[in-house]
Amino acid sequence: MRLILYISLTLLVSCGSYEKPVDTSLESKILLIGNGTEPQDLDPHIVTGVPESKILMALLEGLVIRHPEGRSPMPGVAESWSISSDGLTYTFTLRKNAKWSNGDIVDAHDFVYSWKRVLTPSLGSQYPDMLYDIKNAELYNKGLISSFDDVGVKALSDFSLEVTLANPAPYFIELLTHYTTRPVHQETIEKYGNIDSVGTKWTRPGNFVGNGPFTLEAWQLNRVIEVKKSDSYWDKSAVKLNGIKFYPIDNVTREDLMYRSGQLHITGSIPQEKIDSYKTLYPDELKIFPYYGTYYYRINVNKPPLDEEKVRDALSLSLDRKEIVEKVAKGGQEPAFSFTPPDKNGYYPRSTLDYDPQKAKSILNDLGYSDKNPFPKIELLYNTSEGHQKIAQAIQQMWKTNLGIDIELTNTDWKVYLSRQQIGDYSISRAGWIGDYPDPKTFLDMMVTGRGNNQTGWSNIEYDNLLKKAANATNQYDRFEYFNQAEKILMDEKPIIPIYTYTRMYMLHPDVKGWNSNLLDTRPYQNIELTRE
Amino acid sequence: MISLIFRRFLAALPVLLIVVTITFFMVHSAPGGPFDADKAVSKEVLEQLNERYNLNEPVWKQYFIYLSNVVQGDFGPSFRYPSRSVTELILTGLPITFELALYSIIFAVFLGVSAGLISGLKPNTSYDYIPMTIAMAGICIPSIILGPSLSLIFGITLQWVPVSGWGDIPGDKILPVITLGTAYAAYCARLTRGGMLEILNQDFIRTARAKGLSETRVVLVHALRGGLTPVVAFLGPAMAGLLAGSFVVETVFGIPGLGRFYVEAAFNRDYTMILGTTIFFSSLIILFNLLADVIASALNPKLR
After folding, report:
1. Which of A12, A203, A254 sits opposite B160 (nearest CB)?
2. Within its chain, how far is the Cα of A55 from the centroid?
C-alpha cells in the first residue's frame, strides 16, 4: 500500500511541473496553431478547405502574396507585372532567385504546367473556376477544346509569363493569392503519377517539393502537421519563425482548453457561450474582426407559399436583425442588409432591408392570410449546431410573434443538409458564404441562373445580364455600379434573406507579434514573430 | 480447445459477411454523398469523381466489386483523404487506440480489483460502502462529462497535466487513461466484490483457513483465482468495447486513434472508410470474445 502511495505521489509531483509549449516556443520559435479539421490532402489543386489553405500558405507561394493587412497583394514569385490598357493581358516578370525546396529554380513554365493541371478535366479539381477568367480556360476544363496552347497562358521566356483574359477582371491579381493558382513541381508530380493523378504520395513529408517560406517536416494524421523554415526561400531573411505546428482540432471545447493550458498560440474559433465572459477575462487575447462572409437564409422559390415574392418580403420585414446579432449571435456581427458584405475595397451595397413588422403583417393580410385562412406551417432546415439552432429559434419566435406564422425547425447532419438543398427538398434553409477573394463577384455570381450554389430555384434574366455586363466592364466604377443594381434586384425579390455579416473570433497569445487581422482572415507567415515583453 | 477455436472461426465468417452487407447498403442509402460540399461541385467534376470511385455503377455491382476487393485484402482508398488507403488509416490509428485501451484496462483492473477486494473482504462495512458508491458513480458518469471535468481541474486550474495530445508532452496520457478506464474500473470492482463474496463462503476456503493458512495466503492464493473469473470473462468484451468505444475520449483529448476516424467517416460519408473500419472492429470483437472464452475455460475447470 505504501509503495502504491509512493508511486502515485511521485507520478503526480513529476507531472506537476510540465513545461508549457507556449513557453518553450519562445526559445524554439515554433508557432502553435489550432487548425480545424484534419486536412484532406496538401495538393493545392485538389483541396478545398480553410485548414488546408492555412498550411499551403506556408508551403507554396504563388505569383503574388496576400497582404497581411488585407491591402492589395504583394509580389511573390512575380517580381512585377504589367497590365495592358484594355485590362486583358497581364505580363508577369518572375524573380530569378525563387527556388523550389530541392534547389530548382521556379520559372514561368512551372506556372503553365500547374495551371494546365488545375484545368485538366480528368484531374477533377473542385476550384478550376478560379482560373476561368483566363481565355479559353473554361472550355479546356470542360473538355470542349483539347489543346492547352489555345488557353491564354504562355511562358514568353523562363522568367516572363503572359496571361490573356477572356474579360477584364480587375480582381484577377486577388485571385492569384488563392492556393489553386499556386505552382506545383512538375518532376515531383510526375515522379509519383501523371498530371491528372489524384492522391499520389507526392504530398508526403520527404516527397513534398514546395516553393514557400516553409517546408513540410512531418504529417502525423489527426495529430499535427509540422513545417520548418525553408533554406531555399528567396526572402528567407523575412521569415522570423523556425517553424509552425498546425494542430487539427475539430472540437472547439478542446481547442479552448488547449489554449488556456498553454498548448496553443492561436485558436481557430471560440465556444460561443464563452464569448461574453472572455470579453472581460481576456480582453487583450480575444480577437473579434469583420469577416468577408454573410449568414443568410435560402428560400426555395418553387415551394408555395414562398413562391410569392410578397411572402418573402413579409418574412424579411419581420426580422429584427439588430436583436439577432446583439442578443443571440453575440460575436460582434453586423446586421446584413445585402448579400455582399460592405468591404474596404470600395464596394458599398446600397440596398437596405427594413424592420417593419406591421407592414409585414399587413402584407400577409392583403394576401388573404388570416385566422380563418392561416399561413401554412413551413419548415426551416439547418445543419446540427448549437449556434444555428439558437438563431433559428430566435427567428422562429420573431415570425410567430410578428406574423403569427408557425415554423418547424429541422436539424440534420451536414451531408443530409447539403443534399436536401441540392435537390430542392426544403422550404427555408440556413446558409453561409465566405468570399474566396475580396470582390462582390464571389457572392453575386452564385445567384446567377443555374449556378451550383444558387439552390433556390430563383432566376432573373436582368440579374444575369447585369453580371455579364460587370464581367466585361473595363473600370471598377462601372463594375460596382452593375453589381449594385444586381444586388438591388436580389434584395427586392429575396430568394435569400441576409441576416448578418460574419466576424472571425479567435484567441491570440500575447507572445505572437505581427498577426494582423484582415477581411479574409488569411495572412502570410513572414514577419510573424514570437517575443515576450 | 483447438476445435472450439476452429468452430468459432468458421461461425465468424457468415457474421462478417452479414455485417458487411448490411453496412454497405445502409451507407449507400444514407442521404448525401461523399462529394457533397459547401461549394457545390460542378456536374463534370462530380462525374469524374464518381467514375474514379466506381460510384457511377449500380449499387449491387459496386457491392460485388467491393467484396471481391476485400477478399483480396484491399479496402480501397479513403474518399475523404484521397492520398490515403483505408488500410493505411486503420494501421495509423490502431496502435494508438490499442495503447490507450491497454493502459485503460490495466488501470481499470488494478484499481477495480483492489477496490473490489477491499469491499469483498469486509462486506457491509464502510470499507465496502465507500468504494462501491464511488464505483456506482464511476459507472454512471459518462466519459464526455468526466473528460472535460478532469481537464478543467487538473489541466486548467491546477495546471498539473496537459489537456490534449498523446505522447507529445510528458503526462498527456494520464487524463485520457483515467477517463476511459474509470467506468471499466467500476465494473471490475463490482465484479471482483461479487466473485469474492461467493468464493469466500465456499468450503475449500473454510478448509484453507482451518489448515491455519495466513489470511493473505487464503485470499491471494486460494480465493482470488476463483473470485476473478467474472472479471476475466468481462475483460474480453471490455477490451473490444474499449477499442471500438474510445471515440469520445479520443475526441475530448485529441488522440489520433482509430475511433475518431470511424465516427468521422460516417459524418463524411467516406464509404470505404466506414466499411473498412466496421469490418475491422467486427473482427476484433469476435476475436476478443473468443480469447475471453479460452482464458475463462483455462481458469475455471467447470467450464471445460
Report:
1. A12
2. 14
CB within 8 Å: B82 and A46: yes
**β-pairing verdict for A30-34 and A243-247:** parallel
Q: Is A157 on the interface with B (CB under 8 A)?
A: no
- Say yes or no for a CB contact (<8 Å) between B32 and A258: no
**Nearest Cβ partner for A18 among B39, B161, B252:** B161
Set of chain B residues whose Cβ sits within 8 Å of the Cβ of A122? 48
* Rounded distance between C-alpha atoms, residue A331 and residue A462, angstroms: 37
- ipTM for the predicted complex comes to 0.85
- The tens place of each residue's pLDDT in chain A, 533 residues long, gives 455 555 554 555 454 557 889 999 999 999 999 998 899 999 999 998 889 999 999 999 999 999 888 888 999 999 999 999 988 999 999 999 999 999 999 999 999 999 999 999 989 888 888 999 999 999 999 889 999 999 999 999 999 999 999 998 888 999 999 999 999 999 999 999 999 988 899 999 999 999 999 999 999 988 999 999 999 999 999 999 999 999 998 888 889 989 998 999 999 989 888 888 999 999 999 999 889 999 999 999 999 889 999 999 999 999 999 999 999 888 889 999 999 988 756 788 888 888 999 999 999 899 988 888 889 999 999 998 888 999 999 999 999 999 989 999 999 988 899 889 988 999 999 999 988 888 899 999 999 998 888 899 999 999 999 999 998 888 888 999 999 999 999 999 999 999 999 999 999 999 999 998 888 888 999 989 999 98
Cα separation, B106 vs A287, in Å, equals: 44
- DSSP lists the bridge partners of residue A160 as A93, A157
**Cell numbers for A207:** 516527397
| Closest-CA residue to B88 (of B263, B278, B261) | B261
